[in-house]
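Technical note accompanying the year-one report. For the benefit of new consortium partners, we illustrate the data format agreed upon in the data management plan: each record pairs a sequence with a structure-token string. No post-processing was applied to the example shown here.
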Amino acid sequence: MITKVKGFVLNETSYGETSKIINVYTEEKGLIGIMCKGAKSMKSKLRAFTQVFTYGYFHIYYKKDKLSSLINVDIIDNLSFIKKDLLLINYITYISKLTSQIIRQTDKNVFDLFINSIIKINEGLDPMTITNILELKYLPFLGVGLDLNSCVKCNNQTKIVTIDGSSGGFICKNCIENQLIVDPKVIKLIRLYYYVDIKSISTINVKEEYKKTINKFLMDYYDNMTGIYIDIKKKITLL
């Protein structure tokens, strides 16, 4: 029976001389492997539709816990804005690798967060900000959600003056050691990032220094609290 699923190609692996296997994150079935026979051939109609970052409806012979077989693909968005910019390609590569670490089972919430982030970056919104918003929203799925109200050291809910990824969150005036005090707007932005609906974002206007502070905090937080290390994130920061 032919099954239609909405999905995004996270990565691909060659299979023989002319075929490939693509790993597709789908809304309906979670992460599935799909055999694409002959898709590497120059004459194959599937060649253009089975590349990394393809976002579309995949018509497949679905086999649970086994490789499915691809029949055809209807493209939803070719993500042309992203594909012509190396920096954006690196951001989507990072987001895809991070999402691969999040996926445990079919979860429409994760799928929507992932796809909406990609769409917003393709619309031209700031990729660092969108990525940081996604990183914050992924933390509960990793079991290390950020406490947005209290000092990580004493649970004080007042006089929060800084953030420290190595310590695991917000720090109040009474517990600060050698950390730099951040602008109160940074604290407010982190809370806003966590609660905002990505799909509803139409413009982003955040000072560069605030973006860098939040990005550094999240890099440290992920390194110390999640056990996930994706080297391309540091490469992006240097670009």
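Partners are asked to follow this layout when depositing records. The longest strand covers residues 2-15.
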